[in-house]
Write a structure and sequence with these properties.
Blueprint (H helix, E strand, L loop, with lengths): L15 H8 L5 E3 L5 E3 L2 H9 L4 E2 L14 H11 L5 H4 L3 H14 L5 E3 H18 L6 H17 L2 H23 L10 H6 L2 E2 L2 E2 L2 H32 L1 H7 L5 H14 L5 E6 L3 E3 L2 E3 L4 E5 H4 L3 H4 L7 H4 L16 H17 L4 E3 L6 E2 L7 E3 L1 E4 L1
Parallel strand pairs: 2-10
Antiparallel strand pairs: 1-2, 3-7, 4-14, 5-6, 7-10, 8-9, 11-14, 12-13
Helix pairs in contact: 5-6, 5-16, 6-7, 6-10, 7-8, 8-10, 10-16, 12-16
Length: 383
């Protein structure tokens, strides 16, 4: 670490992966122009993520369930909600997700460029999530437009715009709750949204505000994240035809998933999570006061040369145990199985329906910029 730690850095308009690659060899902790302390190294990010007493997740003034809760309260909500996201609960949806992916892939043009992020990633995320939650297909265009506007608002840093976009999504969620309040369950026995409305925590049913918060967590963040993940995966496969061919040869699901996780480690679009310190502490040689706002930068941690050597080298067997794509500790992503399942299915269907996926030489892929990770656009040609 250098003698002087930067305390006024701005990532505005920059590719966060490239920027943190520049910073991390010299600094484990930096402070940005918003007054947030950003942890860049694997050891420090893991240390903070596992220190649930001194690094609180209760960072937002808005209701965030279960992400923004701590201790016993967090555990109670996770116990009630994690059952929706386990292997047994998701098993009935495998074939539905395959149909969604196969239909979408079949509809993509061949021999001309197609954007893997918007045409494949966003569309698949919206359709798969709507299928899982029994949301009407008529909402697709509204959800697709919302994903695009949410990314734009987030990149802009305009708080009024970001707030309005969030309120728009909450209104959309309430529109799917309304018919269920009237006794209409579109998904029948497999209607996850209706079942969520019946869920109890500590002997009482979730309030409407809590239901909206949970559904916002399950969908609002994941739609954009899955789209970006698909872009990262397709870019990597297009750039590495030998891996593309290997994955067409019937690789078992467990090995397939580990490879996808490793690609996402190399280019992690789940950029960061927030914490707030509960007391004065020192981390990475830097003294933080109580109530300091902290960012755990997963993208940077997953590329730490001290842990992974060459961060761009694909080595799932060696790196899987230290991969932080889905976080670590009590607040590790509860939707990991769902996200992994969706990505495995859409990538398998894309590979099965094509003989090659190549990057379009006429339209270079475009990196996403702060605060979003991954690729903004990945034009590929399918044959």
């Amino acid at each position: 670490m250098t003698d002087h730690m930067p305390d006024d850095l701005s990532a505005t308009g920059r590719d966060l992966r490239g920027y943190t690659d520049e910073l991390r060899p010299r600094h484990g902790v930096v402070r940005n122009v918003h007054g947030e302390w950003v942890l860049l190294r694997h050891e420090l990010v893991a240390q903070a993520a596992l220190d649930h007493d001194r690094f609180s997740s209760a960072v937002s003034s808005h209701l965030h369930i279960p992400n923004g809760l701590d201790s016993a309260e967090h555990a109670a909500y996770r116990q009630a909600l994690d059952r929706f996201l386990g292997a047994e609960a998701l098993a009935p949806f495998h074939d539905d997700f395959r149909r969604v992916a196969a239909d979408l892939v079949a509809s993509l043009p061949r021999g001309v460029d197609v954007d893997a992020v918007s045409a494949l990633g966003t569309r698949f995320a919206v359709r798969a999530q709507s299928t899982w939650l029994s949301w009407p297909a008529a909402l697709e265009e509204r959800l697709v437009a919302w994903v695009a506007e949410n990314h734009a608002a987030t990149r802009s840093g305009n708080k009024a715009w970001t707030k309005r976009v969030a309120e728009d999504f909450d209104a959309l969620i309430r529109s799917v709750l309304k018919p269920r309040r009237a006794g209409t369950s579109p998904g029948g026995a497999r209607d996850v949204t209706t079942e969520l409305m019946r869920t109890e925590v500590d002997g009482r049913r979730l309030s409407d505000a809590e239901i909206v918060s949970v559904l916002r967590n399950w969908t609002g963040g994941d739609l954009g994240s899955i789209a970006l993940c698909v872009g990262v995966l397709v870019y990597h496969l297009a750039a590495h035809p030998q891996l593309q061919e290997r994955l067409r040869t019937g690789v078992p699901d467990a090995e397939f998933d580990t490879i996808l996780d490793e690609i996402l480690r190399i280019d992690d679009p789940f950029v960061s999570n927030r914490r707030i310190t509960t007391c004065p502490l020192t981390i990475g040689g830097v003294a933080l006061p109580a109530a300091a706002r902290v960012k755990l930068n997963w993208t940077s941690a997953n590329r730490d040369e001290a842990v992974f050597g060459d961060p761009n080298a694909l080595d799932p067997r060696v790196n899987s145990e230290r991969n932080l794509v889905y976080g670590i500790g009590r607040h590790a992503c509860p939707g990991r199985l769902l996200a992994t399942l969706e990505m495995r299915i859409v990538v398998r269907e894309l590979l099965a329906a094509t003989s090659s996926i190549v990057l379009d030489p006429r339209r270079p892929a475009e990196r996403a910029v702060s605060p979003v990770g991954g690729w903004a656009k990945v034009p590929v040609v399918l044959t």
